[in-house]
Design brief:
Length: about 400
């Protein structure tokens, strides 16, 4: 319908996409409607100006994010319709660069985010997690799983990978929360970001001749070789540090889902060998974020699924929608641990795909092993609808996860 409408010059209607405070793992009903309406629709989000295209089908999503005619650099300086109340696109930040500069910056830290880089921190991560679970068991039930484990564990791991000393973990967490939170206003967020940036500028500056394998050493060495500027290195370090905490929300949703679906937990306990595959299926299924993230701007006229997008138009893709595309994932609403193949795009696709994907998988595997094997009777301590979920957040997840065993 949209294709016909667009070809006859009539644009599809602009749909208002409000910020919804969704709970549990409920799929956004507005996104479901948009997906049903057509492969390419038009949306207006709560903040910013005007409207943007929304692309939801798996193949179209992958095509758009891999097509250099859709630029992130071109977003800087524009007030595109968006979910986030305030928008601080730093020129040169990894999210707002296009290849080849984007490739150059990402390459400087790539070694830390490969499987080998993950193995470097695995044993230490397992030890840190075991200590948190020891404390949980020692204190006894009930407990808030987020405060006890799902919060502190990803912070400890990302600090380890970054080369941030243990004594600075708490400060990093406070800055991260202030940067991400809209509640305290733009000024507070910007101050926290300046402070975290100053911290990383010092750390990276000290490591300019380093041969270390942590991220700040890799960045220091790249600055020392003149491959990236200190400003670029600091911007990337801040985003990686903040991104590290995404695992708290994602694993919070994951354990919420598992603890409300005992049949899934029974299988994961009985067949531990399926856990890595099950984690990928959960990553596909969980609605990691609200609405959509960063848009791209068409730098020339492009046709997507028969719709003519004009140069200068803003385009969003939805990875959540792509992960429910029935042409790629039969019966997409079902959590199917045997799903194979499972080429989900929970970590994105194309040049901006998430650098933390390997780390997030590793942490979720360790969490699943530790919590299912060491806390046998683990269950929710309250009714599922009593679990508080974060409101007004970009990334979805429980505020706390009351459990007992
Ligand atoms: C980008 C998902 C964990 C750091 C992204 C993107 C997605 C995503 C969908 C956007 C891709 C795009 O723009 O097209 C997730 C999920 C996570 C997770 C579901 C947890 C389960 C992490 C972790 C880190 C991280 C642990 C840090 C180590 C980043 C950064 C970007 C990004 C820096 C921007 C990359 C770029 O623009 O080049 N992530 N992420 N994320 N993520 Fe993650």
């Amino acid at each position: 319908m949209i294709e016909e409408a667009t070809l006859t010059g009539v644009l599809p209607p602009v749909r208002h996409w409000p910020a919804l405070d969704l709970t549990g793992t409920e799929f956004d009903p507005v996104l479901a409607e948009l997906m049903a309406e057509g492969p390419v629709t038009r949306v207006q989000l709560p903040h910013g100006e005007g409207w943007a295209w929304l692309v939801t089908r798996y193949d179209d999503v992958r095509r758009v994010v891999n097509d250099p005619r859709f630029s992130r650099e071109a977003v800087v300086g524009r007030q595109v319709t968006r979910l986030a109340p305030h928008f601080i696109p730093d020129r040169g930040a990894v999210g707002f660069l296009d290849p080849p500069h984007h490739t150059r910056l990402r390459s400087s830290v790539a070694a830390a985010f490969t499987a080998k880089g993950g193995e470097r921190v695995r044993a230490k991560a397992r030890r840190m997690l075991d200590e948190l679970v020891d404390d949980l068991l020692r204190a006894g039930p009930p407990a808030d799983l987020t405060a006890a484990v799902l919060g502190p564990f990803p912070i400890a791991v990302i600090c380890e990978l970054m080369g941030v000393p243990a004594r600075d973990r708490h400060g990093m967490h406070v800055w991260t929360q202030l940067i991400l939170s809209a509640a305290h206003g733009k000024e507070v967020s910007e101050t926290a970001k300046r402070e975290m940036s100053a911290y990383f500028a010092d750390l990276i500056g000290l490591r300019e001749n380093s041969s270390g394998e942590d991220v700040t050493s890799l960045l220091g060495a790249a600055v020392g070789r003149g491959e990236v500027t200190l400003e670029e290195a600091v911007g990337l370090a801040v985003l990686l540090q903040i991104g590290g905490e995404a695992v708290t929300s994602n694993s919070g949703q994951m354990f919420y889902l598992l603890l409300t679906r005992p049949e899934l937990v029974r299988r994961l306990r009985a067949e531990p060998e399926i856990r890595p595959r099950a984690i990928d299926e959960l990553l596909r299924y969980l609605p990691h974020r609200n609405a959509v993230g960063l848009c791209r701007i068409a730098v020339e006229d492009v046709e997507i699924a028969g719709v003519r997008v004009r140069a200068g138009d803003a385009v969003y893709v939805s990875y959540l929608a792509a992960n429910r595309d029935p042409d790629v994932f039969p019966d997409p609403e079902t959590v199917d641990f045997a799903r194979s193949p499972n080429p989900h795009v929970a970590f994105g696709f194309g040049p901006h795909y998430c650098p933390g994907g390997m780390l997030a998988r590793l942490e979720e595997e360790l969490l699943m092993d530790a919590l299912l094997d060491r806390v046998p009777g683990l269950r929710l301590a309250v009714a599922p609808d009593q679990v508080p979920f974060r409101k007004g957040a970009l990334i979805r997840g429980p505020e706390s996860l009351p459990v007992t065993w």
